[in-house]
Amino acid sequence: MKNSIAICPGSFDPVTYGHLDIICRAANMFDKVIVVVASNKNKTNSFTPAERVGMIKKCIPDLDNVEVESYDGLLADFAAQKGAKAIIKGLRAMSDFEYEFQMALTNKKLNPNVETLFLTTSAQNMYLSSSMVKQIAAMGGDISSFVPEVIRQDILERIKTNK
Ligand code: PNS
User: Fold this and answer.
1) Does the chain have fewer CB atoms within 10 Å around its N or its C terminus?
2) Atom of ligand 1 nearest to the CA of 73
3) How many domains would you assign to the chain?
4) What are the C-alpha distances in Å from 37 to residues 1, 8, 81?
5) What's the Cα-to-Cα distance from 79 to each of 70, 116, 154, rounded to whole Å?
6) Is ligand 1 within 6 A of the CB of residue 107?
7) For residue 48, what pLDDT is reported?
8) Is the residue at 20 inside a domain?
9) CATH of the domain at 34
10) Which residues pair with 35 in a beta bridge?
11) Which of 118, 152, 153, 146 is nearest to 131 (CA)?
């Protein structure tokens, strides 16, 4: 989709290979992608929005058409401010579907100019989640297949101090 902007929203607490796969695929489809660390009032986060933005940036130094920022309001308003045509979300198992469907319909109601597009998660990331990564790290497990090396230490340090 040429000359169009897409946004990739999420909590990204922390970003995982699953998120990065979706971001890279979105960057191949759109001229510009804005990754937005948005606030999910149902979640308690381990990292500040600025830390999460920093970790995402560290993971994608070579993606020239991707920007990363945080936003503390409604995603529909952020999309309108940026003139985004699409919200890109990754869909994992069926368990994601109802929640994602509800968000997509709500965002469409709030901003009829933006479409939500779902990308099927890659098979190896089917059951990967940020909370799983934090649990594994907290119990001394190996998180190397879930998050890039550049942010691994940041995660381990934070999990250690939160114990
Ligand atoms: O990674 P997550 O936690 O599943 O992402 C959910 C997120 C942050 C994209 C969602 O909670 C969101 O859009 N938050 C911004 C506030 C908002 O617009 N809420 C209404 C969405 S229907």
Assistant:
1) C
2) 16
3) 1
4) 23, 9, 15
5) 13, 11, 30
6) yes
7) 97
8) yes
9) 3.40.50.620
10) 8, 68
11) 146
